[in-house]
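Predict both folds.
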Amino acid sequence: MKQHIDQPEKEEKFLNFLRIEEDSKTPKYKQIVDTIISDIENGIFKIGERIPSINETSEEFYLSRDTVERAYKLLKKKGLIIPVKGKGYFVANTGGPKELRILMLLNKLSEHKKTIYNAFEKKFNLEEVTIDLIIHNCNPYTLESAIIENLGNYDHYVVMPHVDEVTESLVDTINKIPEEKLILINQEIDGIQGRFSSVYEDYEHDIESALNEGYDSIKKYKRLKLVFPLTNHYRPAIKSGFTRFCESQHMSYEITDTFKHDLLRNGDLYIVIEESDLCEIIKTANAQGLKIGEDIGVICYNDTPVKQILIGGISVITTDFEKMGETAANFILEKKTDRIKNPFSLIKRSSI
């Protein structure tokens, strides 16, 4: 950066305030935003003080005017700076303590993920906190782009890294989030560094232990059949945990990717993930005159209100989604760092 020894102290600060890394993957406009936010928070620029103009910043740091203008528009949108006609931009009076800003990145907006979000949100006073939500649809590139686009904009990043493929680039991008600001939920992935927080499921151990919990009710069935769809991004560890349970208990088992009517057999217990497969099993059982809970058994993955009342209650193996959201919120509210396994259990109802 240029040195201006003869400039007054205020002008010296104006001409040396910006920190731009040419080789950074973070866009330059974002680096401008991040620097000015940091300088405001650290008191380098005080409320009511003028910051360098768009032209000053553009010329001094060899940046395009469009780049600087984009950064200032974003700062204005955040309410951090205000334009004064004929005078430039000034640090705004934000009125009291800085609002807490949280970004939550979920893989999809299913009923279970809504439960996590609602439980998380409920823990905060929304007059003091902004919680933004982005859905990445299990696409690692969408998740990566969302993180890069929002680096430096939030105090905490609650990330569900449930994607089709964990790429090296995605891991590198998540590692750009300061460790004290990162909270992983639902699962952990290898390669994330530092003392971040997480509340996670252990898919393989969870299903095995839940089935063991219900062994006295399960053992009356001749064979266990897991209907595990190839779509919808379910974790392969679910199959591993199911297999370990069946082999350790010396039970006959089968894994199929879809339920077909001719699969239904008296004396079998079906473990299903998709509600569409559950509906097909119920319809087929009714057509064949088989009673669920006596002739055949059914266990579903993840609980919903409908499963609590359907045909007298469907047994489920499920994590506590509400608890997951609450735990993630408590990391922030209690200013603590921890890695916590979320509760997972079998809820027995009339279907087994």
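Second protein follows, with its predicted structure tokens after the sequence.
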Amino acid sequence: MDWFDTVITITGYEYTQDAFDAVANDALAQLGDYHRLYSIYHRFEGVENLCTVNDLADGAHRTVTVDRRILDLLRYAKEMYTLTDGTVNVAMGSVLSLWHDYRAIGQDDPAKASLPPKSLLLAAAEHTDIDKLVIDEAACTVTLTDPLMTLDVGAIAKGYAAEQVARSLEERGVSGYVLNVGGTVCTIGKKPDGSDWTVGIEDPDGDGYLEYLQLSGQRVVTSGSYQRYYYVDGQRYHHIIHPDTLMPASGFTSVSVVCDDAALGDVLSTALFCLPLEQGLALVESLPEVQAMWLAQDGTETVSSGWATYVKK
């Protein structure tokens, strides 16, 4: 399956193949549902999703009655906007769509690769006010009150969906599984022999792993400049866009987060990639059960105070 446009792997221990298949197929079916709901690029017959929320009708966004799972995601996104001081903003769609389109052109035809003009980026940035995302809990509706604003949930949807699926399995008493949704890793319990899972932090240079973590129920999420990018005049431009500069964030090659919630990990890995190291460290240290590792462009590694507790000895 390529839900969320990524590779999904499920590892688990069961006494029979049928028992494993039942758990894996259920997890994949749930991820498929979330993918259809949270997609901003594709419409699905009979589904009001984020793509249709972004649509215009007669020059305006309509009020859309949505599945409760969309409402829950967007409410959480607003909370994360506050937590990250605006660094992670799902209302940045107008800016991020420009980068997406220019990156797609550059990847398809490197000879035509170029950067989005700054004038277009600045104009798009005028339409990123998250307060223009109006949620009506009672009516279960979403309205974008700025006709030039669109949503982009790329920094949160995959982790949020993975977390909801992992929790649903845990609530059913499932244990001894690892759900890996494109690098968003959710460990569910321990291995049957009581040992922890070993999860590697990928080396951006492609030389194996930076280090290995021992996890039992935690989640680990990594954001990196090496995952999605294109070249313009020999310089690489990645997909993590800083909300202030409107350009790819600089300073780090990757940021990894370990915590008890993949949605939070997804948000934080992006936020910490954009924030100055000192500010990012302070944010992590203020949050219970959250640890992080930063890999700078010069290869320097910095870790939060409790990161070492997860490192495989």
